[in-house]
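Support request, please re-run this one:
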Amino acid sequence: MLVAACLALLLSHSSGLGKTVEVIALIVNSLSVSRVIPIVGQATAANPVSSRATLIVCPVSLLRQWEAELDRRTTMRPGVEPLKVLRWYGAGRTRDPRVLAKYDVVLTTYGIAAFSASKDGVTNSPLAAVNWFRICIDESHYIRGGRTSATFRFLKAVPSRRRWSVSGTPINQRLSDFQPQLEFLGLTPFGAPAVWEGHFARPYTTGGTLTANFSSKSRFGGSNGALLPHFLLPSLGVLLKHLLIRHIKAQQLDGEPLVALPARSSKIVPVSLSADERLLYGAFEKHSRLSSEPLVATDKVCRRHIFQLTQNLLPLRLAAGGAATEAHLSSMLAGDTDAQADGDIKQSKKKKGRAAGVPTNAEATRLKAAFKRTTSMTSSKLGRLISDMKRIKEADPVAKFCVFTEFGSLVGSITSTLSSAGLPSVFLAGHMTGQERGKVIDRFSSQAEVAALVLARRTGAVGLTLTSANHVMLLEPGLNRATEDQAVGRVHRLGQTRPVHTHTYVTSASVDERMVDLRRRKGETLTSGGDVKSAEEVRAERREARRVYLRERRKELRLAAKAAREANNRMRRMAWGSGGVPPGSAGDDEEEEEAEDETEDESDSDASDEEAEKDRYMDDPTVTRLEEWRTLLGMVD
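Re-run finished. Output below.
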């Protein structure tokens, strides 16, 4: 197989399309060509022992998933010997590289890799003393920190003959997330930070093209001042075409779906806040705006501002779900503009003074009373969730639910509320060990009386198979489509036999609605069924909208100019008396208007072409721009 012979590859199917199965098939297929070469002497990082094993590095939450899939997929055929798999995790793991080299697959985690790293590049980890046949990093966007990440530095230094990078979301936040993955794969010179910045990132972010910005030979920096020939300067799309394998759920082959999955439907569920919740939300919104105004007053959001803006948005998002915290309320009443929430972000001891618009004593009393009343009852959003789940259970007694929230600190309280309402539920938390997580998932999948699994989107977005559920309840909308689709993909994936229904709960007249509207304006809808419009389709729609806008704008300007000319002619007539308009003036105006009409289509085309390259960056759904922060905080209509 050609794929098996690839020395470096990025596997990036949409969530639930079998990336794990493909990697296992690759391992089995390549065992016949990967031979162990014995060495003489002690195995060290300088003299590694050769092995036919594949080292798989993944988040700790996926260890159990990999073990289960390796066992199930390699024991299905009679007469086929199962793979020898070692879970290299925990205090009792072997320190002998020769033992590791005897296995077919060794599983470890990013945490172990980070622990094994060293600043001077020298490590005594047995992983570095094995020349692996292949290293495969699952959820490879975990190394997006690049050379600043200890995990990346260690994995890049571990010897191997082949490297695979696996991630459904290789671009998680920004285009630069790709660079460390290319560097890990050893794609010289394209993975070098200077080459990436000079020949890929900068052309895309500045709206230029490679041919327009670079000569036949371009200096990409480095201590040796090497030159990168022009024929080694393909666009990012051309590079990925030869590097990346990606399938999506909507893909077809000969008119048939590439993967036959049950239908998926999505809908937005509007939620109205109670009077007390609305009072609290209004106060938090005002405070968030005032706290953020100095940060968004400039033309560009600085990197150091992003944390503070996210922090200012946090209490607003919690309040939109009726889950405002006492810590946030106290901070708002005290005018603290640098307060943070228990359970989601560590408490800060800094105080930056009282912000303008701090509630008066009377307003503070009303807010405290409203907060006390809201905490003594179920929030409006949870109330709507419970009523919907009960209605669905009445129509389909075997229905099961995955309830996702943005906030890990709310998982326990949501689970208790659902269970108290007659919907027995379990939850996954980030602090759970792999064994504890496995027990929770087994209980949810095997016990019919357990109706729901509650988990934070960060916890459940990767590596879980939850096909026993057929309803996905998203308690908050999100801006990151990739993470949201990964979470839904835990349910809508291979092995699912029932239609999957996604419900996104959106609080009316709140930051929730603004998030949904912002995603729509960026060409991403929450009801897309898991696959959104292509970047080219979004750009084409934007160009057409721009043409329409420019045409309408020119019409308005021409009408205004015509009215001004008519008024000017009337004034001239009054000045010249009954003799009429001075010779040539009216004709000149008519010729100008005709010239504008003739060039209208051409100018529209020119304007759209000039902006087309800028759209590559400006339309990037992972880029959060200044106007987006203003929109989320309610500073613009």
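The CA atoms of residues 430 and 459 lie 6 Å apart. The longest strand covers residues 130-138.
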